[in-house]
Write a structure and sequence with these properties.
The structure is a homodimer. Chain A is of the alpha/beta class. In chain A, about 45% of the residues lie in helices and about 15% in strands. Chain A contains 14 helices and 12 strands. In chain A, the strands form 2 sheets. The first copy, chain A, has a 6-stranded parallel beta sheet with strand order 2-1-3-4-5-11, sandwiched between helices. In chain A, α1 crosses α3. At the A-B interface, α4, β1, α5, β2 and α6 of A face α4, β1, α5, β2 and α6 of B. Chain A binds a DNA duplex (16 and 16 nucleotides) through α2 and α4.
DNA sequence: GTGAAAGCGCTAACAA
DNA sequence: TTGTTAGCGCTTTCAC
C-alpha cells in the first residue's frame, strides 16, 4: 500500500506538501505541484480513508436511510437513492446504505462513530421517532418527506398538496364536475406517512373552490376489489367522469375494469395519475400524470446537505412544485346525453 | 465525543483493556469486563470508525456496486440490496453504495483507499471490464451474476439454465407440445448480461429432450407490439398452447392481448413467468412462475464474502436452484377439438 | 489478567 | 512557498 510519505519522498518534498497538493488548502508552486502529481500517478497512490477520517474528523460519507419495506414505491426509492449517490459523488462524498430496520439505533451508531458526516432519511413519518435524535445531534441531516413538525430539521418533498390541487384543476378545466379519487391502501393512511393525506387535502380544498364534487376511496388491491369500488362510486355518483389515482398498482386494475364496463378513456371518463413517469408511460393507456420527481428530490437533498456541511444554514422545508404531463388518458368531459 | 481513553479512565482500567473488552481478543476477568461495559453505557461510548480503520486496517464496510440503469429489474435489485445490507449488519459490516456509473474506477478507488474491506458486484456482464481489476487485487469480492470466465472469482446466481428447463418441463408435464417464449428486449440480449441467453439455452435443450417445439420472440414494449408478436406466433405455430415469459413488463400486455383474442388462461393457453414473486401474485391472473431469489442471492453473497474475509477460501460459482410455484395461469393442454 | 507504549497514515497548526 | 511536528482514537505487540 502506497502512503503519503512515500509519495513525498518520491517527489522530494515533505508530507504536508503532498497533503496540501491534494486538498488545495494552500498555494503550491506550479513546479512542486507538477512533481507531486506525477509521483502520485507513478506510484498509484490513493489516500487512506481511515487515516484521513481520523485526522480530519471528516469521513466524506453521507449515510442514506432507506425503508426496508420493499412493498411500495420501490422504483422511486431506487431512483432517489441513485440520484443521491451520483450527486454525492460529484461533491466528493460516498453513500453508506442504512436500511430502516435498525431504526433510531442506526442514527445513534452513525453519529456516534463518525462513520458518516451527515445523513439523509427517506420514508419520513409524520411523527418520526428518529427526529428527536436528529434535533439533538450536531450531525447535519436532510429528510426526504415532510414530518408534522419541521422545526429544527431540513426537508425536501414534492408539494403533495399542490399535486392534489393540480390534478383536480386539470379535470376542472376539461369540464369534469364529479371526481373520484382512488387512493392508497388504508394502511398507508394509517401509517401517517403524510403524503397521501396531503394530496387529498390539497385536492379537496381546490375542488371546493372550483365547485367540484369529490369522492375518495382507498383501495386494497385486486381486480375484484376494483370492480366493487367502481360500482360503488358510480352507484353513489352516477355522473362521475374524472378519476384521480394515487397508487401505482391501482392503475392497471382501474383501466381494465373501466374497459370491461364499456367506459372509454378518455371519451367517457378521464384518468389522472400520481405515479412514477414509467408507470404512466407504460400503462395500457398512456396516462396524464404528475410524477414524483425522484431525481430532483435526491439531488436536492444532497445539495442541501453539502450546503450544511460547508456551513451554510438551510433549515426549513423545500417543496418541489408538481408538474402535470398531459397524455392520452384525459380529455373533455362528455356532454350530457 | 467520547473516546476509548475516557472510558478507560471512567472504569479505572487501561485503554488496551477497554479495547480488548470490545474485541474479545483476550480474556478479561468478569469484574473488569462488567465495569468497563458499565462505563461504556454510562458515557454513551461509540468507537470511532476512522481510528479503528486506521489502526486495524479494516473498515468493516462492504462496497456494493449496483447498476445505475434503473430501467430493469429494479424491485429485484432493491431486494438484493436490502438483503445484502441486513445480512451484512448481522456480521458487523456496513454497506457502501456505489453506482455502476464510475465503473472500474470505483473499484480502484475503493480498493486503493481502504474505504471498504470487500465488494459485491451486481449486474455482471459476460465479459465484465471490472473483472481484471478484481483478479489483480487482494480485496475479496463476490459477483452476483455469472461472467463468461469465472476463473479466480466467486459468483452467486440463480441457475438460469435450470430455470428455463424447469419452465418447459412444467408445460410438458401438462401436455403442451408447442411453446412460445416471450423474452426481454433485444437490447438485453445484445448487452450480454448472460441470464437471458442462459435461460433460453436451458429451455431449448430441455425442450429438445422432451420433444417440444419452441419459438422465441424478444419483445420491445407496448401493447401493440405484443399484439403483433402474438399474431405472428399463432400464424407460425397455430397449435401453440404454452407460453414462457421472461420479462416483467411483458406480463400484463401478454395477458391483456390473450384475453382480447378470446384465449382463456389457463383453459386455452398456459403461461409460465420468470419474474419477481410480487409481479406473479399481483398480475391479473395469478401466474405460475419461477421467482428470482433476490433475498437469497444477497444473503449468500454476503456470507461468501464474510467467509473470505475470515480467511476461508471459496472461489467458484454458486448456482441457486430455481423453484417453480404453480398458480392459476397454467393447466392441462386443451385436447384438440 | 492487565498495562504501557508504539504506531496506523493523514491533517493542520506552527514555524520558517 | 514549504517543512516540522503534534496529534486524531484506536489496535496490538511487548512486558509484567
Amino acid at each position: 500500500m502506497v502512503t503519503l510519505a512515500e509519495v513525498a519522498q518520491h517527489a522530494g518534498v515533505s508530507a504536508s506538501t503532498v497533503s496540501y497538493v491534494l486538498s488545495g488548502k494552500r498555494s503550491i508552486s506550479a513546479g512542486t505541484r507538477e512533481r507531486v502529481e506525477r509521483s502520485i500517478r507513478a506510484l498509484g497512490y490513493h489516500p487512506n480513508a481511515g487515516a484521513r477520517a481520523l485526522a480530519s474528523n471528516r469521513s466524506n460519507i453521507i449515510a442514506l436511510m432507506i425503508p426496508l419495506r420493499t412493498d411500495m414505491y420501490v422504483p422511486v426509492m431506487m431512483e432517489i437513492a441513485t440520484a443521491v449517490a451520483t450527486t454525492a459523488r460529484t461533491h466528493g462524498y460516498d453513500i453508506l446504505l442504512l436500511t430502516g430496520e435498525e431504526g433510531p439505533d442506526a442514527v445513534r451508531r452513525v453519529t456516534g462513530s463518525g462513520l458518516a458526516d451527515a445523513m439523509i432519511l427517506m420514508d419520513v413519518e409524520l411523527d418520526d421517532e428518529r427526529l428527536p435524535l436528529l434535533r439533538a445531534t450536531e450531525q447535519p441531516s436532510v429528510l426526504i418527506g415532510l414530518p408534522a413538525d419541521t422545526a429544527g430539521v431540513t426537508c425536501v418533498d414534492l408539494d403533495w398538496s399542490a399535486t392534489g390541487a393540480l390534478c383536480v384543476e386539470h379535470l376542472a378545466e376539461l369540464g369534469h364536475r364529479d371526481v373520484a379519487v382512488i387512493g392508497e391502501a388504508p394502511a398507508v393512511y394509517e401509517r401517517h406517512t403524510g403524503f397521501a393525506e396531503r394530496t387529498l387535502d390539497g385536492l379537496r380544498s381546490r375542488a371546493r373552490e372550483l365547485g367540484l364534487k369529490v369522492l375518495h376511496r382507498p383501495w386494497e388491491g385486486g381486480y375484484d376489489a376494483m370492480a366493487v369500488t367502481l360500482s360503488r362510486i358510480f352507484d353513489e355518483r352516477p355522473r362521475t367522469t374524472g378519476f384521480v389515482v394515487q397508487n401505482e398498482s391501482a392503475v392497471e386494475p382501474l383501466l381494465a375494469v373501466l374497459r370491461r364496463q364499456g367506459r372509454a378513456v378518455p371519451e367517457d371518463v378521464s384518468v389522472v395519475a400520481v405515479c412514477p413517469e414509467q408507470v404512466a408511460v407504460q400503462a395500457s393507456v398512456r396516462l396524464t400524470s404528475v410524477a414524483v420527481p425522484a431525481q430532483e428530490l435526491g439531488r436536492h437533498a444532497v445539495e442541501l446537505l453539502v450546503g450544511k456541511l460547508d456551513g451554510r444554514e438551510t433549515d426549513g422545508a423545500v417543496l418541489i412544485a408538481p408538474e402535470l404531463t398531459v397524455r392520452a388518458s384525459s380529455g373533455p368531459a362528455p356532454t350530457a346525453p
